Amino acid sequence: MFCWILLLINFYDEHNFLGHQLAKLPMDPRIGKIILLGPIFRCMRPSLIIASAMVYHDPFIHPIEYKDRANEAHKWFANNHQR
């Protein structure tokens, strides 16, 4: 069903050209589709910006077991990188 929503397969459950190309990319199909369709619609740069924003992970999110270690690192950066 997910591939049908992204229009990667046709009515007969066969992969179309876009589906074949996305299968070669080691990433989420939604992000790959944005990257592959960017040049077709002549908006490669904005599509790359959007795709990179979609895969961005906040560096301040950390596992609970590393909370003390992360807090120490935050304090160190706050003290040593002031203007």
Question: Could you characterize what this model shows?
Answer:
With 83 residues, the protein is mainly α. It has one domain (1-83): Four Helix Bundle (Hemerythrin (Met), subunit A), CATH 1.20.120. Helices cover 57% and strands 0% of the residues. The chain is built from 5 helices and no strands. The chain has helices at 2-5, 17-24, 29-37, 44-55, 67-80. Mean pLDDT is 77; it is low at 1-5.
The average pLDDT value, as a whole number, equals 77
**Termini distance?**
52 Å
Question: What order do the helices and strands follow?
Answer: HHHHH
What percentage of residues falls in helices of 4 or more residues?
55-70%
List the helices and strands and how they pair.
Elements: H1 2-5, H2 17-24, H3 29-37, H4 44-55, H5 67-80
Helix pairs in contact: 2-3, 3-4
What features would you highlight for this structure?
elongated; 83 residues; mainly alpha; 5 helices
